[in-house]
Design brief:
Two copies of one chain form a homodimer. Chain A has 367 residues and is α/β, with parallel strands linked by helices. Chain A has 13 helices and 13 strands. Chain A is 39% helix and 16% strand. The first copy, chain A, binds a DNA duplex (30 and 30 nucleotides) through helix 2 and helix 4.
DNA sequence: GAGGCGACTCGAATCGATTCGATCGCGCTT
DNA sequence: AAGCGCGATCGAATCGATTCGAGTCGCCTC
């Protein structure tokens, strides 16, 4: 029994009460056709009397073929997306642009890839899972998604929906909003090199789908799927080929702290004089760890981040970081979606990060 | 023509190719019924060959009567919701809880109320507006909504959808997650009184739908519709009945600064010795303004906020504020939705704010 | 006064899937 | 060997609205 309440009125009921046909009633509501004003009023009155709440959006969107909803696909759990300032800025930008066509934003967590028709866990859940492949959306924006989603993406394409990705691996039929992760990180690394640093460590964003934490090995690199993390790693190693890298399990302050505590446990003279963190939150964690260990920043340890979000409670530090235009990236994605929905072609957009030098980087200690 | 591409395959096509009936094909996909493994494989194979992307979510949700989407209604433009840390924490909490039933979150900006069947602006927009009343949602969470939405809310009720409100005016059939705005502010005000303050000013959140800025007059109070702002104002005036209040046009640092510059333009001796701001962001603005005017905080001006979000770049200040459990409020709303969707009754939850004393409040200057 | 034109209204097909009840075999029991 | 039970499959109704083509009716024109 799909209907929860018996006898919720339908358009047909309203039409009957108003003494018109369903088609006329529909016209009266949608306004797309000639309806006599008197008739229209009669229909609206009937609707009021029956407490009819207007055409059912489900039926409407089935018939019309459009739902007015844009999906934003993230690969973490939904709640984590709200923790990351970069995500938020990008949401913001997307919302700004699709607001122009009055579309709404559906936040979707990518489900673990499941084969076409794979068995769902519980057949009679009160609410069925909304996955990327079966959400009533008109288009999708992928945020930092990995090839793990390839199946879902091709399902979207099979549906004929426009798909735009903000960073991530290029895929057939997906418009990518690009970010110069590799080159930007290389610029940041060069900045360290110029200051005289030789021993550098890297803390990366999660590389693989399972978010493995720890030293980045060949094996981990091989299964690495995060374009963003890999590109930034590549940029850093272009300058410091032998730099050790540690993967964090997420872009959180505490993950940065944890990795840094491990990195900095070496005796001075062996331990790195600089750490390249792949996000500002990680970098803040590094600074916290240094404070705990009594290692002065930037005198004995330089720290560089990525993102350019202004992190809370960092005073007196001003993080040296690579500032990326997250809000603008979101807008570009939104604009692309709008254009594609209107039947046009959207072109690839590439964004550039700017090195903002703060007071967390300095020449390495003389010794 | 609803379909954009000609000949996108449907379940019937797949069934035909697999040599089974549509009903069997449906069973093969949904898994809710006995289907021979061989048949199932045949159907899935046919689907692959035709590039069939799975059952159309629109049709599915029409038939099933559920879409798996929970709407979160905000009254600002969507993008502004992402700017407010309290909103974000609440989103986060909601997402956490509804994640348990695999539902997704639809962010909806409340449209200006329009009468049932009111004329839409453009009949042939590429994407139709998604308003509160016609979004394919299974339930709605209202975030800080005003009576302006009364029509939309009653439409939701007519649809038989569960509706939960986080703060806001109680409405028939709407479960409210409450916050002790009035009493909490009163406690904060009493803290100032105990320190000896007499001349106090208040900076409120937007009171009315139009977000009028400026001195709070009787007229403004009369059209005030934000429960949160009104309750907090009431709490402050319970202690300082004659305190002047200024409405900000939004919860932003710059709005707080702007209001404070006006408030503090009086000669010392007449100007307030303390300012009660209705949000932390506003309070930070007050501190900024005081810095600009060379007024020492807390020596010559005490400042108290509301929210307990840790605002960036405030050092060396630790804001005295009323800490509210925003994340928990979101969770409570999410839990209530889940319970109601499962057919149960959800009970009202009330949250309490705690006064956290920082270093922005002190006794007023002796003079 | 007949023809014609418009403004309205209606019937019926359609969107694409789900689901209930009925049917059909087929193996097993007694 | 007849009867039974059960798993697999199918037909048809249904979900609730939109839309197209086909009337219907009144009024204007020549």
């Amino acid at each position: 029994m799909p209907d929860q309440d018996p006898a919720r009125p339908t358009l047909a009921d309203v039409a009957a009460r108003a003494g018109v046909s369903a088609s006329t009633a529909s016209l009266a509501f949608s306004g797309s056709g000639p309806v006599a004003e008197a008739t229209r009023q009669r229909v609206l009155a009937a609707a009021r009397e029956l407490h009819y709440a207007g055409p059912d959006p489900r039926a409407r969107s089935l018939r019309r073929g459009r739902s007015g909803i844009i999906g934003v696909v993230i690969e973490e759990r939904v709640r984590e997306a709200f923790r990351d300032p970069i995500h938020i800025a990008q949401f913001d930008g997307i919302a700004e642009e699709i607001g122009h066509i009055d579309a709404a934003l559906l936040i979707l967590a990518a489900s673990p890839a499941h084969p076409l028709g794979g068995v769902k866990a519980m057949p009679t859940e009160p609410v069925r899972p909304v996955t990327v492949e079966d959400a009533p959306i008109d288009a999708a924006v992928l945020m930092g998604c990995t090839p793990r989603l390839a199946d879902s993406v091709s399902a979207l394409r099979d549906r004929g929906l426009p798909v735009v990705a903000i960073e991530g691996f290029p895929a057939e039929g997906v418009l990518v909003i690009e970010q110069d992760n590799r080159d930007a990180t290389e610029r940041g690394a060069r900045h360290l090199r110029q200051q005289g640093h030789e021993r550098v460590a890297i803390i990366t964003l999660p590389l693989d789908a399972a978010h493995h934490r720890g030293l980045v090995t060949q094996e981990l690199l091989a299964i690495g799927s995060s374009a963003t993390a890999l590109q930034r790693l590549e940029g850093a190693r272009a300058v410091f080929p032998d730099a050790r890298a540690y993967a964090a399990a997420g872009s959180y302050v505490d993950e940065g702290r944890r990795a840094a505590l491990e990195i900095l446990s070496l005796p001075e003279g062996e331990r790195p004089t600089a750490i390249i963190a792949q996000s500002d939150l990680l970098a803040v964690g590094v600074i916290r760890a240094a404070e705990e260990l009594g290692i002065a920043v930037p005198d004995r340890l330089s720290v560089i981040g990525f993102d350019g979000v202004r992190v809370d409670g960092l005073w007196p530090y001003e993080l040296t970081t690579l500032e990326q235009p997250a809000y603008e990236k979101g807008r570009a994605a939104g604009r692309a979606i709008v254009r594609m929905l209107e039947g046009g072609e959207a072109e690839v957009v590439a964004f550039t990060s700017v090195l903002r030098v703060g007071n967390t980087t300095a020449p390495p200690p003389a010794g």
